[in-house]
């Protein structure tokens, strides 16, 4: 095997130091990806930010092993960084702690979402619900993203019923068992908590260069287009590691969590 996970200017990681180099971590990842894919079998999966990357990639590989092929819109990676909502009392309620993005920035981000067919009308007319997969601690970033996706002005412009739009969205939290579950907020109740291994999800969440997705805070929304960005080399190595492990260790006859 390649002695390094991948290289990027100023960023070198040895393969044997990566969490997924250990087979026991890969086994855990595959088990948790099996649960994720079972829950999202009929949904369009939206990977929010960079933290859930490995889990969703494993789910996609398991689908392919079973012969379930998807079109390019079945799984979509959405770049989003930053937050302007702050969780108070570990997520008991939220308050704005800094200025939200400007009108120009929000318009630019809406254009980006529309390219991914995640505008209100596209979500409504799609026969599948969208399942937003995310790893969070207290939910301030998630609430910030949803405030943009469900922006009332945007919903009104597209002549979509607000309640119908919310009913088409499921938020799927990869839940660290050491963190408190995020409560429903703003009458948004479609939140699913999937408990995952705390150490693994925490370690993967810190590896921003290992996943597909752009660092994309509001001040960059009107400056760059993540759909034109190339994925980091490291992300390809992670994908290959997942593919290699699944091909070597998972049988098509045993498409259920490993014991």
Brief descriptors of the model:
259 residues; alpha/beta; five-stranded parallel beta sheet; 9 helices; globular; disordered N terminus
Give an overview of the whole structure:
With 259 residues, this protein is of the alpha/beta class. Helix content is 37%, strand content 17%. The protein is built from nine helices and nine strands. The chain has helices at residues 23-39, 53-65, 103-115, 120-125, 140-149, 152-157, 162-167, 198-205, 233-249; strands spanning 4-8, 11-14, 44-48, 75-78, 85-88, 93-96, 130-134, 169-175, 191-195. The strands form three sheets. Strands 4-3-7-8-9 form a five-stranded parallel sheet. Helix 2 links the parallel strand 3 (44-48) and strand 4 (75-78). Helix 1 (23-39) crosses helix 2. It is globular and about 50 Å long. The protein starts with a strand and ends in a 10-residue tail after the last helix. 37% of the residues are buried.
The coarse overall form would be globular
| Percentage beta strand | 15-25%
Terminal Cα separation, in Å? 27 Å
Give the biggest beta sheet. 5 strands, parallel
Determine the number of helices (DSSP H or I, runs of at least 4 residues): 9
Counting DSSP E segments of at least 2 residues, the number of strands comes to 9
**Structural category:** alpha/beta
Radius of gyration, in Å, reads: 18 Å
Mean pLDDT: 84
**Any low-confidence stretches, pLDDT <50, length ≥5?**
1-13
Helix content: 25-40%
Structure summarized in a few sentences:
The chain is of the alpha/beta class and 259 residues long.
């Amino acid at each position: 095997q390649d002695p390094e996970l991948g290289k990027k200017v100023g960023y070198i990681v040895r393969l044997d130091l990566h969490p997924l180099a250990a087979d026991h971590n890969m086994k855990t990842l595959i088990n948790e990806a099996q649960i994720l894919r079972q829950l999202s079998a009929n949904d369009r999966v939206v990977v929010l930010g960079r933290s859930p990357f490995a889990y969703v990639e494993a789910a996609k590989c398991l689908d392919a092993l079973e012969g379930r092929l998807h079109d390019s819109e079945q799984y979509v990676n959405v770049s989003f960084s930053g937050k302007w909502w702050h969780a108070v009392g570990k997520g008991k309620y939220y308050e704005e702690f800094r200025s939200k993005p400007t009108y120009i920035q929000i318009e630019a981000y809406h254009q980006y979402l529309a390219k991914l067919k995640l505008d209100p009308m596209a979500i409504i007319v799609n026969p599948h619900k969208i399942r937003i997969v995310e790893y969070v601690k207290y939910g301030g970033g998630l609430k910030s993203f949803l405030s943009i996706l469900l922006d009332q002005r945007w919903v009104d412009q597209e002549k979509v019923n607000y309640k119908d739009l919310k009913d088409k969205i499921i938020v799927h939290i990869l839940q660290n068992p050491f963190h408190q579950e995020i409560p429903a907020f703003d009458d948004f109740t479609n939140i699913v908590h999937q408990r995952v291994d705390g150490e693994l999800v925490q370690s993967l969440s810190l590896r921003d260069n290992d996943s597909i997705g752009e660092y994309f805070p509001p001040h960059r929304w009107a400056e760059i287009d993540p759909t034109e960005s190339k994925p980091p080399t490291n992300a390809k190595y992670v994908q290959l590691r997942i593919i290699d492990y699944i091909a070597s260790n998972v049988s098509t006859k045993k498409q259920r969590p490993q014991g």
